[in-house]
Amino acid sequence: MIRVTDTIAIDPDEIEESFIRASGPGGQHVNKVSSAVQLRFDVAASASLPDYVRARVRRLAGRRLTKDGVIVITADRFRSREQNRADALARLVDLLQRSAKRPTFRRPTRPSKAAKASRTDTKTRRGALKKLRGKPPVDG
């Protein structure tokens, strides 16, 4: 079991990995070896995820989520297959952890009367200071 949070764990059988050829620098090695990993996780069919996590992961996944509800993560940062596998899995776990964290809702508050008065006093003082910056009056 892959531990996501204290209460959520995913079965490794729910994750499908396929190895593809990576692009970028690496010389002949890149053309011969399939070291990039494409990790697929079916959010819609997963029994491990609670409903609120499933709903949030759909919002947070963005382009990585297909129409069928499958998260596709491609990892080709490293030259080794094992490092790319670990990277892809870490990114999936990070996404699921962020989805499991419930957002804190902001309670709207109002400034106190004293805060409003302080703000207007400061503005008045600042305006008076700026008035003094003008040209001196011409005696005529």
Describe the structure.
With 140 residues, the protein is of the alpha+beta class. It has one domain (2-100): Double Stranded RNA Binding Domain (2-Layer Sandwich). The protein has helices at residues 28-32, 51-61, 81-100, 113-131, and strands at residues 2-3, 9-10, 15-20, 36-42, 70-75. The strands form 2 sheets. The protein has a 3-stranded antiparallel sheet, covered by helices on one side. It has a two-stranded antiparallel sheet with strand order 1-2. Helix 2 packs across helix 3 (81-100). It starts with a strand and ends in a 9-residue tail after the last helix.
Radius of gyration: 28 Å
Percent of residues in helices comes to 25-40%
What is the string of SSEs from the N terminus onward?
Answer: EEEHEHEHH
Number of helices: 4
In the CATH hierarchy, the architecture is: 2-Layer Sandwich
Category from helices, strands and their pairing: alpha+beta
What topology emerges from the helices and strands here?
Elements: E1 2-3, E2 9-10, E3 15-20, H1 28-32, E4 36-42, H2 51-61, E5 70-75, H3 81-100, H4 113-131
Antiparallel strand pairs: 1-2, 3-4, 4-5
Helix pairs in contact: 2-3
